[in-house]
Amino acid sequence: MQETRQPSPPSARPVETTPRGGGWLPHGYHLDTHSHPDGQLVYAAAGALATTTERGTWLAPANRVTWTPPGFEHSHRFYGRTDARVVAIPADECGELVAHPSVFGVSPLLREALLALTGGSGRPPGADGRLRAVVIDELGETPEQSLHLPEPRDDRLRVVTDLLHADPGQTTTLAELGRTAGASERTLSRLFHTDLGMSFRRWRTILRVHHALVHLTDGQSVTDTAIACGWSNPSTFIEAFTAVVGQTPGRYQVDLHHHGK
Prior knowledge:
GO terms for molecular function: DNA-binding transcription factor activity; sequence-specific DNA binding. Keywords: DNA-binding, Repressor, Transcription, Transcription regulation. The structure is a single chain. By secondary structure, the protein is an alpha+beta fold. It folds into two domains: about 20-150, Jelly Rolls; about 150-260, Orthogonal Bundle (Arc Repressor Mutant, subunit A). It is about 40% helix and about 20% strand. Strands 1, 2, 3, 4, 5, 6, 7 and 8 form an eight-stranded antiparallel beta sheet that branches. Strand 3 and strand 4 (about 55-60) form a beta hairpin. The radius of gyration is 19 Å and the shape is globular. Mean pLDDT is about 85; it is low at about 1-15.
């Protein structure tokens, strides 16, 4: 299994379990690598959540839900004070859901169903099953919004991605990175496409957006976040962030504050 990577992990004591059904979790709350016999949904009603498997990292900003199928080894890290809601989907109910980890947007109906499932006891018999059916139906109608950062298998490419993970704001060219990795720019460009399914520029942009989401969740300004994550000016950052996340960084912070109330 590949080494777990997270954007700018805060110093926090690792823990092994989430509260039953979820709850408010502190910045830096971390779950080491584990798996479940059932599928698992984790809804970040506020804050942000990074889920890492050997295939890479999926980041869920506020008001997104992460999906991990049964049996997938994964770890979690929570950024900002996170209202995390955890819903188990029995393995025999997972057939209509995607067979890989992913992130989905949350519709108003899906949000209410998730909140009801994690809102404590007192529901009538059979209610949880009916609510899960609503959740599964809604996810089936919702396009994936996976902020997925894949990780390479090729050792030369791993040298490059390690350097970028260590300093996502650097402006080093692929040719310059290649000299450190012992590979030509052309070879590395090909490897990004064949091993990671995207261009070098696209991969680095997603890496920077991952870090930007953490900075914004931590309350940093849009301008400071842009500079820290390698953009030359706020306007280019806003454009790139919006293209990946689907909303401006300013709107994201407003929604983060709203859902965190």
